[in-house]
Amino acid sequence: MENNGQKRELQINRRNFLKAGAAAAVSMGIMGTIGTKTAVAAEAAVGSSAARNGAQSKLKPTGNYGSASVKLAQYNNEWLGTTKIVGEVKNTSEADVGFSQAARGLYGAKPRVGRNYFVRKTPEGAAQNDTLVLLATEAAVQGKVSPVKLAIPDPEQMSQNIKDFAYYLRADEVGIGRMPEYAWYSHKVTNNPALLKNDLANAVTPVTDRHPYVIVVLVDQHLETMLASTGYDAISIAQSFRGYHASG
Fold first, then answer.
1. pLDDT average, residue stretch 51-56
2. What is the tens place of the pLDDT at every residue in 197-222?
3. 70 Cβ contact partners less than 8 Å away, ≥ 6 residues apart
4. What angle do CA 28, 31, 35 make, to 5 degrees?
5. Residue 145 domain flag
6. Which domain holds residue 102?
7. What is the tally of structural domains in the chain?
8. Which of 12, 4, 1 is nearest to 223 (CA)?
9. CB atoms near residue 188 (< 10 Å)
10. Residues in Cβ contact with 67 at an 8 Å cutoff, skipping those fewer than 6 apart
11. Which of 234, 218, 221 is nearest to 25 (CA)?
12. What is the rounded distance in angstroms from the CA atom of residue 22 to the CA atom of residue 165?
């Protein structure tokens, strides 16, 4: 017989867990067009009789988020979630995020050492890490923009193509929206050996690119899976890479 008390507690935890994640994404203003209806990539959907304008992607999965819902979030530079912005929001450096502070030794010796091997300490984590770090190297994503422009479809069709590709990679939700200025790092870590020495002068590089739009890929990591993890095992590491794999 199922324990109704345990089931009710699981539902409450799931709701709060998912709402917190959704609120964090919305507060950054990056779920711009999630929930909107865009054009079907007609050529990709062979035999489709759906109207080209205003049709949902045929690749979009049906998510089960409990009582939480994913809705259109309009861009608003005066609010951060439910908090009103009353002044300038300072851009933070990647060197100040938790993982970087651990690498710099600001949390002590044990976290500093653990920061360097906690992903690769399991066979699954090592396999994922050593593969994914090769997919988007600095040389592949940085540099001058090519003057030769490829022919691309209209913006609506292009956004549909991007979303379809992300859904093909097993994403659960995809949104395209305006990038808030405060969401950029002020500096990016580009020299990990220097970061380990807490040598910030040589560890970071200013972020100068300011692209107007952002693509957000949401991957449901499933509460049931996380409840099976101790927080120190392969599951906790694999969950992050599960998201990386679905977002490129």
1. 43
2. 999 999 999 998 888 899 988 888 88
3. 22, 31, 34, 35, 63, 173, 218
4. 155
5. no
6. 4-137+153-247
7. 1
8. 12
9. 18
10. 11, 15
11. 218
12. 22
